[in-house]
Amino acid sequence: MNYDTSITNLWEFDFYQPQPTQDSDLLKQLGFVPGLKELLMVRQVHALEHGTVWILSEMAGNSVNSDLEQRQSQDNEMLGGMSTERGFYLYGQVHPRPLEWAVYQALRRFKAGDWNLAVHPRCGTNLSVSILLTSTLALGAHLFLPRGPIEQLMGLVLATTAATQIAPDLGLSAQKYLTTAIPFNLEVTDIRVTQDFWGRRAHFVEVEWRDLQ
């Protein structure tokens, strides 16, 4: 595989840099909060799910790329996932051994600083952000513009256009800060073929929490 060193890092100029012990430290301070550990687990699992899909896509394209924009052209749209606090389901045609390699490779790449693996343009977070943003802008246009049909129609068009332009970057930011976290604390315990909650066939990557000092 060829490694492209032209990295566009979402964290490169960020005031916030992920730290290996950040979630462990948070649990020590606020461990009494119900559901906090499960929330932290889901965020890290979510990132590992994205990273695994990226690695599998790169394997299919026989290249390794850390540039987010170039990586999107390699995305295997036949793969999808769903994260839980115990691990993630992976949907699509994939063999167990390449999947296992991709999971561990994603963890290695995360720990080496390839944090762009944590975000993915097809994530449901992006869709949720797009729907929320479009609805908010459309409601604002409806409330603040004159009630004439032409003005309302123009407001709806402008709101939809603005949301379409803003939502992708806002969705990536939502993933980066809210719905994913670098999986410093995850340890893979099992990878197996199973069925999800709705009876669909999937691979399940099971993980457990490992405290870091």
TrEMBL record:
It comes from the Bacteria. This is Uncharacterized protein. It comes from Rippkaea orientalis (strain PCC 8801 / RF-1) (Cyanothece sp. (strain PCC 8801)).
